[in-house]
């Protein structure tokens, strides 16, 4: 005979637009009837939510907070659910009113181009909405960057080899979306033969340098069609292949 309480469904973190209405859910099993009580924490202030004694906690997103649910039985056994984060974005993405949004990842902050000196810190940042909250993975030149699985990519001491084209994938159970690709330049280096999103004057200087030239265009954004991921990856892979064949590659996105 056991009086232990087991949580069978943990609440999940979400990243939502301001004003979005949703439910946090907690489910538990025990040998007696169970009682639920929700708590929230903003900054260092943790407080009980009055009247929040059901398995589901209705929320209208106003500010970023942490939440947990306490479950107890008639034998004074108590367990707490995982702490989950409700991240609230004050700027709703254009064309995505909260009432029509279905929880798929939506990029709300793209990284920006960086130029840093060798040995200095390198930081790229992105953000996405999603229910559940998206997970993140950064890529450089089409290759996965190990250990960079947060909204912020952080390299303490940048090396010349850290230069390249970066982008991040935000994914949850509904799908995945990718940020814009941005160039990162570390220290003094020669003009690369393969580049993306560079200025017209730089592209012109490379085109007049002679030799075999390959132009790759990966269109990732469509007005009346969901974004496609394959063109972006294909541009990176084909650029590498053509460079090995002696081509000067101009790779463009969107």
From TrEMBL:
Domain Ig-like: 5-81, 105-185
Keyword Disulfide bond attached: yes
Keywords carried by this UniProt record: Disulfide bond, Immunoglobulin domain
UniProt xrefs under InterPro entries: Caspase-like_dom_sf, Caspase-related_regulators, Ig-like_dom, Ig-like_dom_sf, Ig-like_fold, Ig_sub, Ig_sub2, Pept_C14_caspase
Keyword Nucleus: no
Residues in Caspase family p20 domain copies: 212-254
Gene Ontology biological process terms from the UniProt entry: proteolysis
An annotated Gene Ontology molecular function: cysteine-type endopeptidase activity
Pfam families to which the protein is assigned, alphabetical: Ig_3, Peptidase_C14
PROSITE patterns attached to this UniProt entry: CASPASE_P20, IG_LIKE
Cited PANTHER family: MUCOSA ASSOCIATED LYMPHOID TISSUE LYMPHOMA TRANSLOCATION PROTEIN 1/PARACASPASE (PTHR22576), MUCOSA-ASSOCIATED LYMPHOID TISSUE LYMPHOMA TRANSLOCATION PROTEIN 1-LIKE (PTHR22576:SF38)
Name of the protein in its database record: MALT1 protein
Organism: Vireo altiloquus (Black-whiskered vireo)
């Amino acid at each position: 005979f056991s009086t232990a309480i087991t949580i069978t469904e943990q609440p999940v973190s979400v990243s939502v637009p301001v004003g979005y209405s949703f439910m946090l859910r907690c489910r538990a099993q025990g040998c007696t009837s169970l009682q639920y009580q929700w708590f929230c924490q903003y900054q260092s202030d943790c407080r009980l939510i009055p009247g929040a004694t059901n398995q589901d906690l209705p929320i209208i997103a106003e500010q970023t907070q942490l939440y947990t649910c306490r479950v107890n039985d008639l034998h004074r056994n108590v367990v707490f659910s995982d702490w989950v984060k409700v991240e609230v974005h004050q700027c709703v993405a254009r064309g995505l009113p909260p009432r029509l949004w279905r929880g798929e990842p939506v990029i709300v902050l793209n990284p920006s181009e960086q130029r840093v000196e060798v040995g200095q810190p390198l930081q790229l940042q992105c953000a996405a909405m999603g229910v559940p909250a998206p997970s993140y993975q950064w890529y450089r030149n089409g290759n996965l960057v190990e250990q960079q699985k947060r909204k912020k990519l952080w390299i303490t001491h940048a090396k010349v080899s850290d230069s390249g084209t970066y982008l991040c994938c935000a994914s949850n159970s509904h799908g995945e979306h990718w940020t814009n690709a941005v160039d990162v330049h570390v220290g003094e280096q020669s003009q690369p033969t393969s580049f993306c999103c560079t200025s017209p004057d730089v592209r012109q200087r490379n085109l007049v340098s002679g030799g075999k030239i390959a132009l790759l265009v990966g269109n990732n954004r469509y007005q009346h069609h969901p974004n496609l991921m394959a063109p972006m990856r294909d541009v990176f892979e084909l650029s590498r292949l053509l460079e090995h064949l002696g081509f000067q590659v101009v790779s463009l996105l969107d």
